[in-house]
């Protein structure tokens, strides 16, 4: 034999275990094989190398000179292989790569991710806030949080909550505008990002006609958490997902004038590759996130289409 020419690796592994234990029975127990299957693999490797590797004695097995020379070499080789796999598995499970849309990252995940790390101190976290669509076959990403309708083939998907939206503004602006008694009062109010597709959807859900964004100056601040900052500053009324701004709504820096929360049948999802569903760090993050959401689920009150509200 030359180069990489060698007996089948399965047979080599069986020989190493049998040589270490000096027992076909114990080797079979270690490898999950029958004694007969171990004996067959030993016969196969002996025929391949053309040498006897074991001698059957009344008191048990003994290694031939060839077997004695081969055993430590193979044991060291398998130890190195096991160490190599152990190292990459340790490294792999030491850092969780999360790709998440910016608003979800800033408003929901960032304030809570420390609790995950407290529960799993051996798992590091690398969180990338981006709108880019993840390709799990190409990108170095373990889990992704995205908004959409799904499903996506090849991915495990956990529906988190609906992308509900409603007008929200600062108390200072409300004081300047005067009372907002009905949704139609917003037609003449200053709106942030009035060309956002959520505005006409919300007005339609409220039964209001006559909203025309073409009559308003164009603005696009990009991500929802940026628009929320402009709303807090009193620059206009924003169309936002209330669950992302619970703290501001609780402390009074933002107010929600109407109960109605409309939705566009999109949801936030936790996704990861089907082939990696049992990776420990992915399971740990999934379980933590679903438990966290179950402990304080987003409110359903006011959804325009209750059949589309999250479970």
UniProtKB/TrEMBL annotation:
Signal peptide: none annotated. Keywords: DNA-binding, Transcription, Transcription regulation. Residues 7-64 form the HTH lysR-type domain. Gene3D superfamilies: Periplasmic binding protein-like II, Winged helix-like DNA-binding domain superfamily/Winged helix DNA-binding domain. PROSITE patterns: HTH_LYSR. It comes from the Bacteria. Pfam families: HTH_1 (PF00126), LysR_substrate (PF03466). GO terms for molecular function: DNA-binding transcription factor activity; sequence-specific DNA binding. One of its GO terms (biological process) is DNA-templated transcription. InterPro entries: LysR-type_TF_proteobact-type, LysR_HTH_N, LysR_subst-bd, WH-like_DNA-bd_sf, WH_DNA-bd_sf. Belongs to the LysR transcriptional regulatory family. This is LysR family glycine cleavage system transcriptional activator. It comes from Aurantimonas endophytica. The lineage of its organism: Bacteria, Pseudomonadati, Pseudomonadota, Alphaproteobacteria, Hyphomicrobiales.
